[in-house]
Write a structure and sequence with these properties.
250 residues; mainly alpha; 11 helices
């Protein structure tokens, strides 16, 4: 059994145990809720610096959801209780959050670069060959994952294991994350007042919230697992065969 198979089985088993315990122990506090409140306190006290720290932590953690998007959303629309003026500029919030998110994602790159023990040696070599054969597509894929809420750990870690240039990862990450976080901050500017009551009435410790966080973890784990198990060597062979057939004279 491969290391990735063992990790998948163990992760799913732990998530199942957590969800079952959540159903049996109604007073069990969601760890995500505790972390969220802690991160929000940091961002409120430190302002833009807190936004950077929250985004960094939220993207540095692999396989564990940190609700940093909610913090950026709130900071984008937060107002002074007395004057009613907005406290933070959404553009600055988004850029700083994007910078923190980029540095956070680079921790996954460093993990893959320094070890990559969960990725088999032949898989790392095949992945390196694949990205070298698609030099123009790889930065676009990195940017696309960064500018969307799709988890990108499953790509960043193998890129590090394949010794892909760090700046080719960092630049698309920063651009994509900043664009995404600017959008979240502006959404907070226009929408925080309308959904404030909803946010206040929804308990992050509820069974629904726990179910959502478990499903999110499952999707991230499966995404990483599928990418690790892709036979890049076979894909390279197929692409090479297609290229040869295309270039053959008729």
């Amino acid at each position: 059994m491969r290391n990735s198979d063992r990790l998948l089985i163990l992760s799913i088993a732990l998530l199942t145990v957590y969800f079952v315990v959540s159903l049996l122990v109604h007073d069990l506090v969601s760890p995500v809720a505790l972390i969220y409140n802690w991160l929000l306190d940091i961002s409120m006290q430190l302002g833009y610096l807190g936004d950077f720290i929250v985004s960094f932590i939220g993207n540095a953690t692999i396989l564990f959801p940190i609700p940093y998007l909610g913090v950026t959303f709130i900071l984008g629309g937060l107002t002074d209780d007395i004057t009613g003026e907005f406290l933070f500029d959404p553009w600055i919030v988004g850029i700083i959050s994007g910078l923190g998110a980029m540095f956070g994602e680079m921790t996954g790159y460093l993990i893959g670069y320094g070890g990559g023990q969960l990725i088999e040696k032949d898989q790392r070599s095949s992945f390196r060959e694949y990205i070298e054969a698609h030099p123009r597509m790889t930065p676009f894929v990195i940017w696309f994952l960064a500018v969307t809420p799709i988890p990108d750990d499953f790509l960043i870690v193998p890129l590090g294991a394949a010794k892909y240039s760090w700046w080719k990862v960092a630049i698309p990450q920063f651009i994509g994350k900043s664009m995404f976080m600017i959008g979240i901050a502006w959404a907070g500017r226009f929408g925080l007042g309308f959904i404030g009551d909803l946010l206040g009435s929804t308990s992050p410790a509820s069974i629904t919230s726990r179910g959502i966080e478990v499903l999110a973890l499952v999707f991230v784990i499966i995404g990483i697992y599928l990418l690790v198990r892709i036979d890049w060597e076979k894909m390279m062979t197929k692409n090479s065969e297609k290229t040869v057939l295309t270039n053959e004279p008729r």
